[in-house]
Amino acid sequence: MKVNGIPYRSIWLGSDGRTVQIIDQTRLPHAFPVVDLTTMEQAAVAIRDMWVRGAPLIGATAAYGLALQMGVDPSDAALHHARDVLHATRPTAINLRWALDDMVALLGPLAPDDRRDAAYARAAAICDEDVEINRRIGEHGLALIEAIAAKKSGPVNILTHCNAGWLATVDWGTATSPIYRAVETGIDVHVWVDETRPRNQGAHLTAWEMASHGIPHHLIVDNAGGHLMQHGQVDLCITGTDRTTANGDVCNKIGTYLKALAAHDNGVPFYVALPSPTIDWRLRDGISEIPIEDRSGEEVTKLWGRDAAGQVRQVQISPDVTPGANPAFDVTPARLVTRLITERGIAPASAAGLAAMFPEHAATAAQ
Q1: CA nearest 205: which of 13, 9, 52?
Q2: Which CATH superfamily is domain 2-129 in?
Q3: Residue 244: what are its φ and ψ, rounded to 5°?
Q4: Rounded to whole angstroms, how far apart are CA atoms 355 and 202?
C-alpha cells in the first residue's frame, strides 16, 4: 500500500539484502518510524512488544528472525534455540508456529553452510505468498460487497474490528482487502472503525490506513456497533482472525465475539477473512483449546495519545490502586459466523465447509 505516495510492504529487506526493516506500529498514527532488525533477538522483541502485530505479519517476522540467526550461527543448536525464543513471544496467533515449523522443516536437513541463503529465500517466499493470499481474499470478498451495493443506494457500510489491514499482513490485509478492492472498482464504501480497546489498534492503525487510502470512515467506540446495527447503519461486518479451529471457531482481538452477537441479533452478515495459514487443523473447540494471551494490565489502565501541544504522552485513566485485567483475544463460535472468506473462496464456518475448501487438511482435522 502507499504511504505519502510511496509503496510499502509492512516488512522488507534493506539495501544490504540482510537487514530486515519494519514499521514500528506502536508509534502510529503520529509518527512513521522504520526500524532495522539485525538480530534474531531484535525480531523477538519486535513481535513480543508489538512493533509488528497481526497473525500473518507475526509469522513473516518470525521467519526473517530465523534467517537473521542463520546469518550469525547456522548450527543445529542455534536453529532450535532461535525457534524456541521466537515461538515464546506470542501464544495466540497460529501463524507464528506455522512459519517457524515451516522454516525448521526446510533448514533442518540442510548443511549449516547452506542455511542462511535458504532461510532468507524462504522468508521472502512466505511474504510473497501472504500477499497473494490476501489479494485473493480481496477478490472473493469483493463479490459480497458488490451484491449489497447492487441492492441499495448510498454507501455500503462495513464495520470492522481491530486492525486486519496491510499493517497486520505483508500487504493488502485480510478484512480490509475486500474493502480496498471495492474502492478500486468504484463502489461507494464507508467503514465504521472500532477503536479496539485496550491497545486501540482500530483508532491508531485502521483509521490511519483508511485515511491514507482516502476511504470514508468514522472512528467509533467499541460499544457503538450494536446500536448502529439496530438502526440499519451496518450492512456487513468483516473481521480478521489470529487462529481458527478446524470446525470454524474464530479467535480474534478481544471484542470480536460481542460484535458477532450483535450482528446475529440484528440479522447483519458477519464475515471473517481467513488466510489458510491461520487455520489450526489440530483444534476443534476454540473456547477450550485456543490459548488466550493475557497482557499487561497497564494497557487497560493507561492510554497513549497526542496532546494539544502535539506531544505524544501516556496518561492513566484509573485509580492508582485499581488493577487492570487484560485478556487480549476472544473466541467467536462458528454458529455466529456467516461465512469465512478464504483465498480459495467463501466457505461455511464449519468442519465440512473448511474440509471441502482445503481437502488436503481433511485427514488432520478428522484426528
Answers
A1: 52
A2: translation initiation factor eif-2b, domain 1 (1.20.120.420)
A3: -125, 135
A4: 32
pLDDT in tens, 38-85: 999 999 999 999 999 999 999 999 999 999 999 999 999 999 999 999
CA–CA separation, 343 vs 235, rounded Å?
A: 22
What is each CA distance from 339 to 195, 323, 346, 359, in whole angstroms? 24, 38, 6, 18
User: How far is 127 from 11, CA to CA, in rounded Å?
Assistant: 8
Can you give the pLDDT at residue 349? 98
Torsion, Cα 34 36 37 39, to 10 degrees, reads -160
Residue where the block lists cell 504511504: 3
Contact 125, 102 (CB under 8 A): no
Q: Nearest to residue 165, comparing CAs of 328, 243, 13, 53?
A: 53
Q: Any idea which residue has 458488490 for its cell?
A: 146
pLDDT, tens digit, 9 for 90 and up, residues 218-237: 999 999 999 999 999 999 99
Q: Which residues are catalytic?
A: 242
Q: Residue 362 and residue 356: Cα distance in Å, rounded?
A: 8
Which residue ranges make up each domain of the chain?
2-129, 138-366
Query: Whole-angstrom Cα distance, residue 38 to residue 61?
Result: 12
Tell me the backbone φ, ψ of residue 72, rounded to 5 degrees.
-105, -45
27, 53 contact by CB (below 8 A): no
Per the CB < 8 A criterion, the answer to whether 87 and 40 are in contact is no
CA distances from 357 to 57, 189, 249, 275, 283 (A): 24, 29, 16, 12, 17
Count of other CB atoms within 10 angstroms of residue 150: 9
DSSP symbols for 134-148: HHHHHHHHHHHHHHH
For 138-366, CATH gives 3.40.50.10470
